[in-house]
Design brief:
Length: about 280
């Protein structure tokens, strides 16, 4: 008979009642260290650039996205769908926005290992050990994208629970937070619901079994009309926010403008003030 497995010691409840808990350690806004989260976005929205900019902030302390100060630490980024030349272009575009001293910190604190064509699989023990080794000694590990890190049907709850479970195991054993990039479902993208928890493509397990979920979605037609932006202008704007956070305070959504090379720059957008009766142009 197989012995009972007890992954962690039981909590001392009496001690917990009277002892002050340690402060929450947030790796990203509202994301606690050692947990698993996701960034959900439609294709070609800029989620890979967002991931790189988050990696730059954690590794080098440069808040390009205006999301607030975050503790620094080493980062691993495993892109499995983009060729090396595309990654080089993104890094070159980012370099134009980063001071030389920060570029040095990022170069030593961020590791990027392209996996295109390698078919990594978190349910394979060899690949599990590889991903775990990439997380060792790191504060954040980014997997781009989830579809490239397993071979299962994303609509099946059982296999998806196993995939999330493997990431949770790595996070628990290493203390490294893991963020996977994932595509939004077609329905949510078409219906303007990309900022909702259930925007994720595939089984609901991909939302229910993680502790943190952020989104990146394009500007909708109603939003553009409210802001008096043309159909051409609205294509350059995306909105970022946290749609699920089990810990911490709510984060206000941020608007970004996609600039040269796809770099996301924070912008303040507000609807033009309505003219008051009696102002020029009013009857």
């Amino acid at each position: 008979m197989q012995a009972m497995i007890r992954p962690q010691p039981a909590i001392d409840i009496s001690k917990a009642f009277i002892s002050a808990p340690p402060a929450m350690d947030f790796v990203l806004p509202n994301m606690v260290a050692g947990t698993v989260g996701a960034v959900i976005a439609p294709g070609s929205t800029g989620k890979s650039m967002l991931a790189l900019q988050l990696a730059v902030q954690v590794a080098g302390g440069w808040d390009m996205l205006d999301i607030g100060v975050l503790p620094e630490g080493k980062v691993s980024y495993l892109p499995a769908e983009d060729p090396v030349v595309a990654l080089h272009h993104r890094l070159h575009a980012l370099g134009a926005h980063i001071p030389p001293e920060i570029r040095e910190k990022v170069s030593s604190g961020l590791t990027i290992e392209p996996l295109i064509g390698a078919n990594p699989d978190l349910l394979d023990m060899g690949w599990l050990e590889y991903v775990k080794s990439a997380a060792e000694g790191r504060r954040l590990l980014i997997l781009d994208t989830l579809r490239r890190f397993h071979l299962e049907d994303e609509n099946m709850s059982g296999p998806m629970a196993q995939v999330i479970g493997r990431m949770e195991l790595i996070a628990k054993d290493t203390g490294c937070s893991i963020v996977f990039l994932h595509h939004a479902g077609k329905g949510s993208a078409l219906n303007g619901a990309g900022d909702q928890q259930q925007a994720s493509r595939g089984s609901s397990v991909l939302v229910d079994n993680i502790r943190w979920q952020a989104f990146l979605c394009g500007m909708s037609e109603p939003e553009a009309k409210k802001l008096k932006l043309s159909p051409l202008e609205r294509r350059f704007y995306v909105r970022f926010g946290v749609s699920k956070a089990n810990y911490g305070q709510p984060l206000q959504d941020r608007w970004f403008r996609r600039c040269d090379g796809g770099v996301l720059q924070p912008v303040e957008l507000s609807a033009p003030a309505k003219k008051q009766r009696g102002e020029r142009g009013e009857g």
